[in-house]
Amino acid sequence: MPDPTPQNDGSPWIIAPEKFFYMNHMARQNNTGAHYHEWLEMAIVVHGKAMHRTTSGEALCKAGQVFMIPPGVWHSYTQCRQFELYNCLFSPELLGGPLAWVCQDPAMGPLMTPAPWKWGSHVLEWRLAERAIPGVRKLAAVLLKTYKRGRILRKGILVADLLRLIDYVAHEGAPATPGELLPVHSAVRRAAERLRAETARAWTLPELARELHIDPSYLVRLFRQATGSPPMKFLSQERAHKAAQLLLASDLSIGEIGTEVGWPEPKHFARCFRSHFGESATAFRLRLKNGA
Fold this sequence. Notes:
It is built from eleven helices and eight strands. It is of the alpha+beta class.
């Protein structure tokens, strides 16, 4: 199967099932239409600038930024100016096997398994100092050369080069928002897991707190400390994320998508979607599918 190429239709990259790791180098990258992956992705920007768009919004990205993108979370690059990056995609087999211990490592664990991924649609941004950019470029190039050896390569050699890259990023960089590495109360994780799993459910704060056997006001306080927003706002963000993905990756009508994510009333869906993305669902679908 040929290497995957992002399309402007919101579809995921398709990777041959026998692969347990995928990597590419995009030099002078052009605009990339919104798309998502079924694997965990690490995107390392080594040169130039671009606008990076996710469900959290749009922001300028440049050399030294590393993005950890969970499976199923879409993103795109636009307004690329001499933009260059390395993409590494990790299969569940790789993360659950040769790299399983990395998730428990004090230094590398926060990079590979930041807590919010367990309960949110979240892209982690890690930042490298300017002095560290040549080093990460060199390690990424070595890994790419190893990766391209393909079937003649023993997996152990690839994993060793990959670990050097992960270790370098983890030690030479830091999360853009340090608070994301703080411990998260179990009630927050459980609440977020329920909300994310059942976005279409007509949740209320008292109902959620009752299921968790916790006082509603205490739950709100814990949730704000961990995420910066109350549970119902988190639910709204998750609904918006799911709606955006369905707009890109399905042929469902706007009304069907609203019902699917928990906003069945058309006017309410339109108002909520616009509050998150600044435009209507129809305009959003047309613009991102056209790679704008």
